[in-house]
Target: RING-type E3 ubiquitin transferase
Amino acid sequence: MGNVGSNSRVNNRRRSSGSGRRIHPPPVRPQPEITANQFIYPAVTTTPHHNYSDYYPPPPMWGRYPQPQPQPQLQLPPQPMPYVEHQKAVTIRNDVNVKKETLKIELDENNPRSFVVSFMFDATVDGSITIIFFAKEGEGCILTPMKEKTLPPVTVNFQKGIGQKFKQPAGTGIDFSVFEESDLVKVSDMDVYPLAVKADASSRDGDGSNETLTSGKTNSQMTQAVFEKEKGELRVKVVKQILWVNGMRYELQEIYGIGNSVESDLDGNDPGKECVICLSEPRDTTVLPCRHMCMCSGCAKVLRFQTNRCPICRQPVERLLEIKVGSEAEE
Model:
């Protein structure tokens, strides 16, 4: 009996103590907040086991993603400069020469509405000059008048002499009002030139009829021109000049710089006469097609192997033409 009672009292105490008194865990104090410092870096703690990929990126997978390899470039050998042909000019005797810069039209004295042609010319022999309006050049340098009925050709004989002036006879001029302006200022599709001047080196028989005009057997010079309008007035503009010598046709081209080489009154030290490369020898070689006479023959022979550009205008050179002028040509 006594044992049973004691046990029950102990159990009651335990129940009463458990029900009346609760045990709470100790309170957790908040930790102070740590602010980042830009000048202080946490130390890296090493561990016995670390992963390599945490610190370095994985290497590229060359087997799966091949990188393009640079292709070798072929080195082509340098191209040699084109060879430029060097020729020597052939001297042709021109017995009569019309100075194209002096070619102009003047009022006709007998008809104020018409105009006549005038110019300066040189002649070493006697000959004749023919004025043809609307002329077409045919085979053998024969000029055919296309408006012969309204504007017949006019032929005038001359004697040899230097610095002569030619003027078309009065009453034989051209009246521009009866023609369209488009017919006067350009060459037609049929190669008809509004004005042509033919100077023959020998006198013709007769009075310049069609038979003697179109014979084409004498040596002659032909100047073909058009008219241009400047400040409301028509003026003559030379298009080309042609030489017909011994059955051969030559088209005259102006050479830039040849005047300095042939003028004997210039000082020998004049820079206009010297080669632009060596600056010592006189100029005697022309560059084609730009027609600059700017070099001596010695420098031209070297230039044709080194470059194909003109020393003056830098245009491509097709040919080099050696021209002996003055006393050199007569030797």
In short: The helical segments are 2-20, 181-184, 210-213, 258-262, 297-306, 327-330. DSSP finds six helices and 15 strands in the chain. Confidence is low (pLDDT under 50) at residues 203-216, 264-271, 327-331. The longest helix spans residues 2-20.
